[in-house]
Design goal:
The protein is mainly beta. 10% of the residues lie in helices and 31% in strands. The strands form three sheets. Strands 1, 2, 4, 5, 6, 8, 14, 15, 16 and 17 form a ten-stranded mixed beta sheet that branches. Strand 14 and strand 15 form a beta hairpin. The longest helix is centred in the C-terminal third of the chain and has 15 residues. 46% of the residues are buried.
Length: 306
């Protein structure tokens, strides 16, 4: 049975007036605003933002994040909105398409940057080979690029079970607001794949599970770990706005296992037009972070997903 470990509640500052959930606007909305349909908060290719709102201030703390992801994410509020500061993927980073949902891991490599601004640790990606940790980028394709029966999947393949020297040992993806991330095992070459499934519960969790089952069978893959909206999405405040999450995966050398992690977050305000929103911890009483190892000896069944 899938069971994420959720850290104990901590004392957080009371949240401000809740904002509409995803698709989340770039400016605050009235507290009574009704949340829109779920959709993850990814960069729109081609959109541009001014340098004044990029949030790239001070030295990067990416090395600290990569050296000890659990500690860093426990002490900092991760913000994955605007992973592409220029509004488009960095040169050298390949993206999946609806007809080709997998990109080999070595083609998804990027340089991770982490800058502090407004109490958030802003994550961004630049071209591979830069001055910073090398990570794999897990892209997102909107549910509109798939079908209700087949869903929409974007993934990276051929991730080593035990990354060697010089190979990325972290996978980053955009904020989650209704989507799921899955870790899959490929028995044919004994590697892992990571997949972002758009709007997992849009048509009900049973439909999401059926879409995933079809995808697994088509690609001869085995489900070994998963993060769904049921794990990270919890109503907050008097309006019951659902929390989102910043998800990532990292390889733990001590246990020799990958871990799938999600840091719960809530909106603090909408930020400047075209810029990042500001995030905060969820209210006291909710877990701060959840994590579970990718264990090939204990694969999941679809019945484990909710």
């Amino acid at each position: 049975m899938k069971s994420f470990k959720i850290s104990g509640p901590k004392s957080f500052s009371p949240p401000r007036a809740p904002q509409a959930d995803a698709p989340r606007p770039s400016t605050p909305t009235a507290p009574a605003s009704k949340p829109g349909a779920s959709q993850d908060g990814f960069d729109t290719v081609g959109s541009r933002i001014s340098s004044s709102v990029r949030g790239l201030f001070g030295p990067s703390q990416a090395d600290s994040f990569a050296a000890n992801p659990a500690k860093f994410s426990g002490q900092n509020i991760l913000n994955g909105y605007k992973l592409f500061p220029e509004g488009k993927p960095p040169q050298g980073v390949a993206l999946p398409t609806p007809n080709k949902p997998f990109v080999p891991a070595h083609q998804s490599t990027a340089t991770l940057n982490v800058q502090q601004q407004h109490g958030n640790a802003n994550l961004s990606l630049s071209s591979p080979g830069g001055n910073g940790p090398q990570v794999n980028y897990l892209h997102y394709l909107s549910s509109g690029q798939g079908t209700q029966s087949q869903g929409s999947f974007a993934g990276i393949s051929d991730v080593p079970l035990r990354p060697g020297h010089g190979q990325p040992d972290m996978i980053v993806t955009g904020p989650l607001n209704g989507c799921a991330v899955h870790a899959l095992h490929n028995p044919a070459n004994d590697t892992l794949s990571f997949v972002h499934q758009a709007d997992f519960t849009k048509h009900g969790s049973q439909t999401g599970k059926q879409q995933l089952d079809n995808f697994l069978k088509q690609n001869n893959l085995q489900l070994v770990q998963s993060l769904t909206p049921n794990d990270y999405s919890h109503p907050t405040g008097k309006h019951g706005i659902e929390t989102g999450a910043t998800a990532f995966a990292h390889y733990d050398k001590a246990s020799e296992k990958w871990n799938l992690v999600a840091q719960l977050n809530d909106w603090k305000n909408g930020g400047a037009p075209g810029g990042r929103p500001e995030l905060q911890r969820p209210p006291a009483g909710l877990g701060q972070q959840l994590t579970n190892p990718v264990d090939l000896q204990n694969p999941l069944s679809l019945d484990d997903l909710r």
